[in-house]
């Protein structure tokens, strides 16, 4: 097992020289870690992955696999196993021939080839499918062949480029658990690219959230959800209200802010937040950390309901607070909430977090 | 030692290194493209300049001034060529569009019969096509003589000669350009647009004029340009119907009279006109917009309800089918006739297997077949290697000048065969860097080279079309699994391109075996190709043997067409697989 390090990696494409596709990315992916690059389309996550695979070379910066500086190695020398978004299975070969391709290139003996192909197909639950034609498989089966083909070469790193995006919702959930199981068994350092935050949260050891070519935050799913680094991350991961609140005081790891209702509360803040009394803090509050309650004096804020939607698990409401819309997800909301009702809202202070703009 | 020879091994080593690994370095494309550029420059572009130099070598611009003088053969020939081309466009347009409407819009008995044979006249090799029409419709032809015998007139009835004969050949062999373009446009047209016009009260003629024709315009303009270019390049029809004042004929006449500078002037003018048409076509197809907005209902064929039409339709279908098959039938009939026995009769009087027996038993008679096959095979190998690589470079690599590479191949396609021949004569009648200092004219190699230049675009086009259907990430996947660029290229990309490449190679081979236009200008007596042998036999009035050679060419074409049809179905299978993986 090896770690993968990206040091100040940037990529500019010839034609769009004004903005970088990937801008000064530095991350270290630990040995055996399942690491996800998450971001909206066009954020540079796939370009980053393709640089790790060797299909693009960085304009500047370095990529290390363990002790090897692989920045300018060609793809075929890197020993990575990549699963492509559209699987990229060779249509003129059978399932077994597809899986054996990398072994053949590596001059693995015929007997070993056969054994390892069989093992890999068993691992992805496709034992006995070796002689099938690729076009005789369903989308989910093709996806697993692609996985087996990447796994069978026992790569130093697995690279997965949105491998689930072509599957239907149910299959997607089954397969993501399957991929994670296989990754744990093999212990291969893996880099996973997706735009689906639920997928990223469910699978990853750590996530790098990317936007406009830059890494916005690197952290565990828990950190990213509860302690988003900035307003973009807060809004991109799940849903979040980002409230602008006046600061009345601050310590190293917390900021005191005044709520619209008049009360002052302490909110957790990242070290080096640089806020002081008189500034305005951006506070991320997840809808599920906002509840109904309080009258004029005790409520964090009050407003008129502008939208109600019952989803079964929760009742989502939007409340108009002095012209700003605040979303709340209410568990066990009282029946009969009406548009136009004036309600008070309570916050869970320990779940709030100060974010950068 | 010069700098060039010292760095050559270094270049080769670098190329080897790059091929085995670094296909994604910025300068890898240039290493791959450089040899391709040299080939295209050396054998397509540079010979054009050589021709131009040749044309002004003897007496400066005098040769070109002849095109301006009002009483010259040059000006007359240019105008005749342009007139024939314009008339061909008109005639082919009328026949092609009418056939497309009839077959795509109406349902009548015998429709399928016509559809099955509609492309047969166009599939004939140029010389055989022209010969068959001469045998059928000229004043020595079967039809005029038949009518003469039937009506008891003194002269053959409805005999086509001169420019009229040329136009008949052009119409029969080139109307498919219009037919195919108009059929595709009609198939893609939303019938409700037409229905809307009827609904608003327009009559049939008005709908035609105001709705259908304007919607067909893009397809018709493309087809017009194509027919114009092909007519301009046409050489066998003027040759057989004795129209000596066309550009192509003047090239041939001046060349055989030894006035190479004048032939070169004609070739330069014809080459430039052809390239202008090529560029016009590319420009037009680039800006053309497809206007089918709605999907779902496709055009419904109308039943012919008129009772006279109902009776007439099958009759006309049978007649049309006979006309379509007549050229092949005429060649087949004459192939079994005895040489020199057919003089003034309607049909050849005596029949024999002797012609075929001679071809296959007399080594001298068999030699042209051997020559053609051998030279075409050599050319096809070159076309495949270079054509596939150019297709790959144009479709998959990013480099400065990609568009120019594409245009250079298409220039080879646009240049008339006569011009290609003159270009090669001008460039390779002395030692040339691209022939390693060897004189090629008068040797075995000049014809394979001409075939290579003429048919490279065929292989390029079909390779390129197949490559467009192959997902580029397949090659990435192979590279990721550890394959070198070269290995990924031949185990994945080339393997998947194979059906298209093979189809293109077969077509190029057939064209090579049937090639006449360039061959007749540059063949050597030791490497006479089939078509030149046919032409020589025709001159010595050995019609039977000539037709027998032609029949063999036609048989080869039918076999290849059948085989390509099978390839086509396996190609659609690949395409289906492709859709699955996407």
UniProtKB/TrEMBL annotation, chain A:
<dbReference type="Pfam" id="PF00005">
    <property type="entry name" value="ABC_tran"/>
</dbReference>
<dbReference type="InterPro" id="IPR050093">
    <property type="entry name" value="ABC_SmlMolc_Importer"/>
</dbReference>
<dbReference type="InterPro" id="IPR003439">
    <property type="entry name" value="ABC_transporter-like_ATP-bd"/>
</dbReference>
<dbReference type="InterPro" id="IPR013611">
    <property type="entry name" value="Transp-assoc_OB_typ2"/>
</dbReference>
<dbReference type="Pfam" id="PF08402">
    <property type="entry name" value="TOBE_2"/>
</dbReference>
<keyword id="KW-0547">Nucleotide-binding</keyword>
<dbReference type="InterPro" id="IPR008995">
    <property type="entry name" value="Mo/tungstate-bd_C_term_dom"/>
</dbReference>
<dbReference type="InterPro" id="IPR017871">
    <property type="entry name" value="ABC_transporter-like_CS"/>
</dbReference>
<feature type="domain" description="ABC transporter">
    <location>
        <begin position="4"/>
        <end position="237"/>
    </location>
</feature>
<protein>
    <submittedName>
        <fullName>ABC transporter ATP-binding protein</fullName>
    </submittedName>
</protein>
<keyword id="KW-0813">Transport</keyword>
<dbReference type="InterPro" id="IPR027417">
    <property type="entry name" value="P-loop_NTPase"/>
</dbReference>
<dbReference type="InterPro" id="IPR012340">
    <property type="entry name" value="NA-bd_OB-fold"/>
</dbReference>
<dbReference type="GO" id="GO:0005524">
    <property type="term" value="F:ATP binding"/>
</dbReference>
<keyword id="KW-0067">ATP-binding</keyword>
<dbReference type="InterPro" id="IPR003593">
    <property type="entry name" value="AAA+_ATPase"/>
</dbReference>
From TrEMBL, chain B:
<keyword id="KW-1133">Transmembrane helix</keyword>
<dbReference type="InterPro" id="IPR000515">
    <property type="entry name" value="MetI-like"/>
</dbReference>
<protein>
    <submittedName>
        <fullName>Iron ABC transporter permease</fullName>
    </submittedName>
</protein>
<feature type="transmembrane region" description="Helical">
    <location>
        <begin position="546"/>
        <end position="565"/>
    </location>
</feature>
<feature type="transmembrane region" description="Helical">
    <location>
        <begin position="78"/>
        <end position="102"/>
    </location>
</feature>
<feature type="transmembrane region" description="Helical">
    <location>
        <begin position="207"/>
        <end position="229"/>
    </location>
</feature>
<keyword id="KW-0812">Transmembrane</keyword>
<dbReference type="InterPro" id="IPR035906">
    <property type="entry name" value="MetI-like_sf"/>
</dbReference>
<keyword id="KW-0997">Cell inner membrane</keyword>
<keyword id="KW-0472">Membrane</keyword>
<feature type="transmembrane region" description="Helical">
    <location>
        <begin position="373"/>
        <end position="392"/>
    </location>
</feature>
<feature type="transmembrane region" description="Helical">
    <location>
        <begin position="157"/>
        <end position="186"/>
    </location>
</feature>
<feature type="domain" description="ABC transmembrane type-1">
    <location>
        <begin position="78"/>
        <end position="281"/>
    </location>
</feature>
<comment type="similarity">
    <text>Belongs to the binding-protein-dependent transport system permease family.</text>
</comment>
<dbReference type="Pfam" id="PF00528">
    <property type="entry name" value="BPD_transp_1"/>
</dbReference>
<feature type="transmembrane region" description="Helical">
    <location>
        <begin position="27"/>
        <end position="49"/>
    </location>
</feature>
<feature type="transmembrane region" description="Helical">
    <location>
        <begin position="265"/>
        <end position="284"/>
    </location>
</feature>
<feature type="transmembrane region" description="Helical">
    <location>
        <begin position="434"/>
        <end position="453"/>
    </location>
</feature>
<feature type="transmembrane region" description="Helical">
    <location>
        <begin position="311"/>
        <end position="336"/>
    </location>
</feature>
<keyword id="KW-1003">Cell membrane</keyword>
<feature type="transmembrane region" description="Helical">
    <location>
        <begin position="404"/>
        <end position="428"/>
    </location>
</feature>
<feature type="domain" description="ABC transmembrane type-1">
    <location>
        <begin position="369"/>
        <end position="564"/>
    </location>
</feature>
């Amino acid at each position: 097992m090896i770690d993968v390090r990206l040091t100040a990696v940037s990529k500019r494409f010839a034609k769009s020289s004004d903005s970088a596709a990937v801008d000064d990315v530095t991350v270290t992916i630990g040995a055996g870690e399942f690491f996800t690059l998450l971001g909206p389309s066009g954020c540079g996550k796939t370009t980053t992955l393709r640089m790790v695979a060797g299909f693009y070379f960085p304009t500047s910066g370095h990529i290390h696999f363990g002790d090897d500086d692989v920045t300018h190695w060609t793809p075929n020398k890197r020993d990575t196993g990549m699963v492509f978004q559209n699987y990229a299975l060779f249509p003129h070969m059978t399932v077994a021939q597809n899986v054996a391709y990398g072994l053949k290139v590596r001059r693995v003996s015929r007997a070993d080839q056969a054994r390892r192909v069989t093992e890999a197909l068993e691992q992805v639950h496709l034992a006995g499918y070796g002689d099938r034609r690729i076009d005789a498989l369903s989308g989910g089966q093709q996806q697993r062949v692609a996985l087996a083909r990447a796994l069978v070469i026992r790569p130093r790193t697995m690279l997965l480029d949105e491998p689930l995006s072509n599957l239907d919702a149910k299959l997607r959930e089954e397969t993501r658990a399957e991929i994670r199981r296989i990754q744990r068994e093999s212990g291969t350092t893996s880099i996973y690219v997706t735009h689906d935050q639920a997928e990223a949260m469910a699978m990853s050891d750590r996530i790098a959230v990317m936007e406009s070519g830059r890494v916005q935050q690197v952290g565990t799913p828990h950190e990213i959800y509860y302690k988003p680094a900035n307003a973009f991350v807060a809004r991109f991961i799940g849903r979040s209200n980002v409230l602008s609140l006046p600061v009345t005081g601050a310590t190293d790891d917390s900021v005191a802010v005044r709520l619209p209702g008049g009360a002052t509360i302490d909110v957790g803040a990242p070290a080096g937040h640089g806020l002081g009394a008189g500034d305005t803090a951006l506070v991320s509050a997840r809808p599920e950390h906002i509840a109904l309650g309080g009258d004029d004096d005790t409520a964090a804020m009050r407003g008129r309901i502008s939208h109600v939607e019952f989803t079964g698990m929760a009742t989502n409401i939007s409340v108009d607070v002095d012209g700003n819309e605040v979303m709340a997800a209410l568990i066990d909301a009282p029946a009969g909430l009406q548009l136009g009702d004036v309600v008070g809202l309570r916050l869970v202070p320990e779940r709030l977090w100060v974010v950068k703009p | 030692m010069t700098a060039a020879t010292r760095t050559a091994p270094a270049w080769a080593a670098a190329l080897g290194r790059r091929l085995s690994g670094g296909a994604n370095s910025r300068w890898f494309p240039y290493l791959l493209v450089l040899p391709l550029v040299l080939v295209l420059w050396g054998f397509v572009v540079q010979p054009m300049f050589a021709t131009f130099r040749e044309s002004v070598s003897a007496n400066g611009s005098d040769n070109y001034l002849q095109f301006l003088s009002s009483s010259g053969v040059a000006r007359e020939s240019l105008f005749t060529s342009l007139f024939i081309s314009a008339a061909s466009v008109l005639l082919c347009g009328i026949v092609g569009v009418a056939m497309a409407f009839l077959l795509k819009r109406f349902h009548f008995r015998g429709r399928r019969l016509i559809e099955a044979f509609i492309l047969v006249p166009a599939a004939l090799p140029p010389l055989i096509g022209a010969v068959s029409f001469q045998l059928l419709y000229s004043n020595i032809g079967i039809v005029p003589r038949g009518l003469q015998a039937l009506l008891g007139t003194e002269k053959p009835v409805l005999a086509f000669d001169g420019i009229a004969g040329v136009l008949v050949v052009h119409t029969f062999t080139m109307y498919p350009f219009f037919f195919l373009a108009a059929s595709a446009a009609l198939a893609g047209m939303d019938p409700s647009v037409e229905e809307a016009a009827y609904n608003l009260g327009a009559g049939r003629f008005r709908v035609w004029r105001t709705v259908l024709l304007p919607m067909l315009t893009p397809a018709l303009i493309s087809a017009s340009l194509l027919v114009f270019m092909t007519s301009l390049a046409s050489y066998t029809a003027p040759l057989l119907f004795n129209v000596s004042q066309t550009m192509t004929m003047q090239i041939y006449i001046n060349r055989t009279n030894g006035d190479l500078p004048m032939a070169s002037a004609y070739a330069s003018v014809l080459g430039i006109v052809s390239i202008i048409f090529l560029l016009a076509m590319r420009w037009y197809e680039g800006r053309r917009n497809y206007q089918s907005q709605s999907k779902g209902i496709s055009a419904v064929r109308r039943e012919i309800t008129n009772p006279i039409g109902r009776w007439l339709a099958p009759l006309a279908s049978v007649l049309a089918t006979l006309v379509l098959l007549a050229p092949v039938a005429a060649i087949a009939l004459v192939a079994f006739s005895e040489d020199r026995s057919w003089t003034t009769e309607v049909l050849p009087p005596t029949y024999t297997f002797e012609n075929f027996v001679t071809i296959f038993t007399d080594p001298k008679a068999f030699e042209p077949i051997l020559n053609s096959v051998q030279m075409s095979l050599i050319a096809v190998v070159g076309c495949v290697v270079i054509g596939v690589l150019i297709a790959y470079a144009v479709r998959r690599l990013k480099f400065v000048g990609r568009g120019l590479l594409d245009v250079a191949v298409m220039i080879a396609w646009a240049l008339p065969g006569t011009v290609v021949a003159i270009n090669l004569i001008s460039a390779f009648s002395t030692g040339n860097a691209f022939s390693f200092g060897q004189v090629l004219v008068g040797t075995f190699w000049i014809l394979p080279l001409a075939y290579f230049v003429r048919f490279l675009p065929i292989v390029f086009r079909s390779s390129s079309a197949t490559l467009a259907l192959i997902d580029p990430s397949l090659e990435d996947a192979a590279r990721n699994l550890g394959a070198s660029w070269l290995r990924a290229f031949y185990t994945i990309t080339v393997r998947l391109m194979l059906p298209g490449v093979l189809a293109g190679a077969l077509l190029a081979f057939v064209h090579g075996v049937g090639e006449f236009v360039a061959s007749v200008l540059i063949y050597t007596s030791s490497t006479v190709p089939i078509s030149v042998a046919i032409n020589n036999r025709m001159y010595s009035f050995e019609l039977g043997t000539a037709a027998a050679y032609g029949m063999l060419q036609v048989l080869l074409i039918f076999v290849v067409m059948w085989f390509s049809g099978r390839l086509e179905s396996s190609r659609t299978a690949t395409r289906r697989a492709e859709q699955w993986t996407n």
